[in-house]
Amino acid sequence: MKGALLVAGTTSDAGKSVVTAGICRWLVRQGVKVAPFKAQNMSLNSFVTAGGAEIGRAQEVQARAARLEPVADMNPILLKPGSDRRSQVVLMGRPLTDVDALEYGALKDMLREKALESLERLRAAHDVVICEGAGSPAEINLRAGDIANMGLARAAGLPVVVVGDIDRGGVFAAFYGTVALLDAADQAHISGFIVNKFRGAVELLQPGLDTLHDLTGRPVYGVLPWLDGLWLDVEDSLALDNRRVVTRGPHGRQTLRVAVVRLPRISNFTDLDALAAEPGVIVRFVTDPAELDDADLVVLPGSRATVSDLAWLRENGLARAVQERKGPVLGICGGFQMLARDIHDGVESGAGHVRGLGLLPVTVTFRAEKTLARPTGQAYGHPVRAYEIHHGVAAVEGGEPFLDGCRVGDVWGTTWHGALENDDFRRAFLTDVAARAGRAYVPAPDVSFAALREERLDALGDLVEQHLDVGAMMRLIERGPPDVPLLPPGGTTRP
């Protein structure tokens, strides 16, 4: 079997990432050597490969679904927004430059060539490459410089399936509109649709599926049912809106309550997935100081804009709430930097000297060169494997050592992402937190986060196998874009 496929979506967070991961897991279980690919990713959730390259976290998960070690070619272009107007461009795993939208346009031709080279290398080394699009292929204002959707499909001759989230409503209009807005050459690559996140009896959906086929001349390859617990290393903070939210109020002493501050430029919030996977641990993403009151642990997570997000903490009263808190606080990467006494940033924000929250004896200095590493160490007597992605370098001037950072009383700080995925360390840390918070919570002794991820990936593979027309999908991958009717602008295939 040889070929490739592009999984596009009607919107961001339609399910492209998880469908791509599910197809990868389904194919690898059929004995197919498959690799994931996303030409251009805009995400603040990233990962460091064994080769020291920074790629989107979703592509790392998709690589795991394909039972591969992730490499830079799987996500050659990563955009990391630092504000509403500027983003860092990461090319082949290394920072290239910071640009606004107009400046980025000048790089598009070069970046497109780099992306196509990465795709060709993956196609040469694997039987099948499953590509993930970005946003929607019908963003016609961006079509001229498109790298990740129809621009990629046409340049590489890829068939395209469009995923739509029926749970948010309007999926039939979104499917039809996606096709109708494209020009004829782009429409020729749109091969069919996948309905995602359906709740209910498929029979009730069938009249709509039939009408969609009549209107577009394209099949629906399947309807994937809603399945709880499949949020896997998502790349978009929009997905936080779908996370479990628990109202404030009394809880049992056996429950541990974690409040994660939802920073405006929150990054690598997937660090907290391992806590949410623990029985008896409630993880909430919060923006109000009052929401910290009943938390047993407050987490300041990573940030792409440390100084800006620190100013936001102060404006919203969260900084004072954290400073005056009597109880455990954990800062990770950007959150750790905010806990420092002093921050010197002439790189990320250009703000120069800024006072931190002063809870840890640390001075942070931002450097132009980004640290990208896969460190190992020990904490609480257990080995820890993690990864680092940061410009700020922390000089620790006191406290107890904690991974690469420090601890003072009930406050911990580290630049290491992924540390909580280490099961023995996580259990020991939570045991200490519970004791300091006066909780009777005891971590479950047998939770393996790695095994849980594998179970989720297998569940995605099962969804694909059981609910998609896998025979038709295989033919599509092998044969490329089929002959499909073209819609005139605002038109229909009906006579």
Chain-wise SSE layout:
Elements: E1 3-9, H1 16-29, E2 34-37, E3 40-42, E4 46-48, E5 54-56, H2 57-65, E6 77-81, E7 86-91, E8 94-100, H3 101-125, E9 128-132, H4 150-156, E10 160-165, H5 171-181, H6 184-187, E11 190-198, H7 202-216, E12 220-225, E13 256-261, E14 266-267, H8 273-276, E15 281-286, E16 297-300, E17 302-303, H9 306-315, H10 318-323, E18 329-332, H11 334-338, E19 342-345, E20 352-355, E21 362-373, E22 376-379, E23 382-385, E24 388-396, E25 400-402, E26 405-408, E27 411-414, H12 423-437, H13 449-467, H14 470-479
Parallel strand pairs: 1-9, 1-10, 2-9, 3-6, 10-11, 11-12, 13-15, 13-16, 16-18, 18-27, 19-21
Antiparallel strand pairs: 4-5, 6-7, 7-8, 14-17, 19-20, 21-24, 22-23, 25-26, 26-27
Helix pairs in contact: 1-2, 1-13, 5-7
Family: Belongs to the CobB/CobQ family. CobQ subfamily.
Keywords: Cobalamin biosynthesis, Glutamine amidotransferase, Ligase
Domain CobQ/CobB/MinD/ParA nucleotide binding: 6-230
Structure described in brief:
The protein has 495 residues and is α/β, with parallel strands linked by helices. It has 14 helices and 27 strands.
What's the architecture of the largest domain, going by CATH? 3-Layer(aba) Sandwich
Spatial shape: globular
Q: Helicity level, as a percent range?
A: 25-40%
This entry's quaternary arrangement is single chain
CATH superfamily descriptor of the largest domain: P-loop containing nucleotide triphosphate hydrolases
* Ends distance: 38 Å
Helix count equals 14
Biggest beta-sheet profile = 7 strands, mixed
Low-confidence stretches: 242-251
CATH topology of the largest domain: the name is: Rossmann fold
Strand order of the largest sheet: 15-13-16-18-27-26-25
**Tally of separate domains:** 2
Strand content: 25-35%
Q: Radius of gyration, rounded?
A: 23 Å
Count every beta strand, where a strand is a DSSP E run of 2 or more residues.
Answer: 27
By secondary-structure content and strand pairing, the structural class works out as alpha/beta
Average per-residue pLDDT, rounded, comes to: 93
Per CATH, the class of the largest domain reads Alpha Beta
